Sequence to fold (103 residues):
Amino acid sequence: MIALIGEKEIWKGFIPLGVTVFEVDNGEQVIKVWEEIKKCNYKFLFLSEYAGKLIEDNLDDLYKQTQINVVLLPSLDDKKNEDKLYYKRLKSIVEKAMGVDIL
Fold:
């Protein structure tokens, strides 16, 4: 099973693909939904850039507390990659693995 946490109306196109979409407006809702998802049999969690930004301070802790594969979905905005949450997380992972920033 696949879950997606994101802002309202944007991710509705995933529903016909069998993805359960959880719409959120604030960080409290993201954390509450994440806790619900952990209790179910979801194997993957897609997290929109918007939802990830709402809980950015808690994101590392939530990653560590779950066995679900979490994928950040980048937003389609005018920001440079360096300003996007998924890029920051990827950069952090690469630095831990390689010892240097190769991005």
